[in-house]
From TrEMBL:
Pfam families: Dioxygenase_C, Dioxygenase_N. GO terms for biological process: catechol-containing compound metabolic process. Coiled coil: none annotated. One of its GO terms (molecular function) is ferric iron binding. Its cofactor is Fe(3+). It comes from the Eukaryota. This is Intradiol ring-cleavage dioxygenase. Keywords: Dioxygenase, Iron, Metal-binding, Oxidoreductase. Belongs to the intradiol ring-cleavage dioxygenase family.
Length: 247
C-alpha cells in the first residue's frame, strides 16, 4: 500500500504567491491578488482604485484614527439612506464627482446646454401630463407658467422628446421629503410637440438647503461650506438616438 497523502486543511483555489509585504510593495501585491477575475473592466477599475487609494494614504501619511473616522462617516451615510434619500448621491455631488462623471460620459459640443447633476430627489413615479397641465398641488407658492422649446445645436426644434421635470414646493422641500406623501407633486413627465415645445404650470422656484441633518451636512459644516442651493427647476431630456441631458 502506498502511504496516504498528508491531509490539507481548508484546501481551495490557490492564488498567486505573495511577497513579504512592505509599504512599497503592498500596492502591487494587492493589485495582483485582485486580478484573477475574468472581468477585465472590473480588474482594471479595482487596480486603479487600489493604486490611487494607497498613494493617497502614503502621500498624506494617513493615520489609523483618520481612516477610522472616514469609515465611520461612510457607515453613517449608509444608515441614513432610505428609498427616498440617498446620502451617497449627496456625497458624490458635494465632492464634484457627479458633475465630473456627467462631463466625461456626456461631453457637450459647442452651443449645447451644459449638463448638471441628477441630484438625490429624482423619482420614477412622476405622472405623464399634457401640455398646459399643472404639476403642483401646493397652494402656497407663487404660480409659474413655464413655456419651453427643445432645439438641436443648429436651432431646429425636436419633436417627441421625453422631458422629466421636478422642483421643490414653496417650503423648499421635494415631495419625497414629506412623511405624509401619498402621490407625486411638483414633478411630471411631458413630451415635446411638433414644434419642440412643451409648457406647464408649476411654482416659481425657491432657494433651499440640501438635507444637512446627516453626515454630509456635518461634513459641509466642518469644511466651512453652506448647504444652500439657488432656486432652480430640474429637467431631464431623453430620446432614442440623442444624448441624454440633465440640466
Amino acid at each position: 500500500m502506498a502511504p496516504a497523502e498528508p491531509r490539507r486543511e481548508n484546501s481551495g483555489p490557490v492564488g498567486p504567491p505573495l511577497l513579504d509585504l512592505t509599504i512599497d510593495n503592498i500596492t502591487p501585491n494587492t493589485v495582483r491578488i485582485n486580478s484573477q477575475s475574468d472581468d477585465a473592466r472590473l480588474t482594471y477599475l479595482l487596480s486603479r482604485l487600489v493604486t490611487h487609494l494607497h498613494d493617497f494614504a502614503r502621500e498624506t501619511r494617513l493615520s489609523t484614527d483618520e481612516w477610522m473616522t472616514g469609515l465611520e462617516f461612510l457607515i453613517a451615510c449608509g444608515k441614513i439612506c432610505s428609498d427616498v434619500r440617498n446620502e451617497f448621491i449627496l456625497l458624490s455631488d458635494t465632492l464634484g464627482l457627479s458633475l465630473l462623471l456627467d462631463n466625461i460620459n456626456h461631453p457637450k459640443p459647442a452651443g449645447a446646454t451644459e449638463g448638471s447633476v441628477l441630484g438625490p430627489f429624482h423619482t420614477h413615479d412622476a405622472p405623464l401630463l399634457e401640455n398646459g397641465a399643472s404639476m403642483t398641488s401646493d397652494p402656497a407658492g407663487e404660480p409659474m407658467l413655464a413655456i419651453c422649446t427643445v432645439k438641436d445645436t443648429a436651432g431646429n426644434p425636436i419633436q417627441g422628446i421625453k422631458i422629466d421635470i421636478w422642483e421643490t414646493d414653496s417650503s423648499g422641500h421635494y415631495d419625497v421629503q414629506h412623511s405624509d406623501r401619498n402621490e407625486p407633486s411638483e414633478r411630471c413627465v411631458m413630451m415635446s410637440d411638433a414644434e419642440g415645445k412643451f409648457w406647464f404650470k408649476g411654482l416659481k422656484p425657491v432657494s433651499y438647503p440640501i438635507p444637512h441633518d446627516g453626515p454630509v451636512g456635518k461634513l459641509l459644516e466642518r469644511l466651512g461650506r453652506h448647504p444652500w442651493r439657488p432656486a432652480h427647476v430640474h429637467f431631464m431630456f431623453e430620446k432614442e438616438g440623442w444624448d441624454k441631458l440633465i440640466t
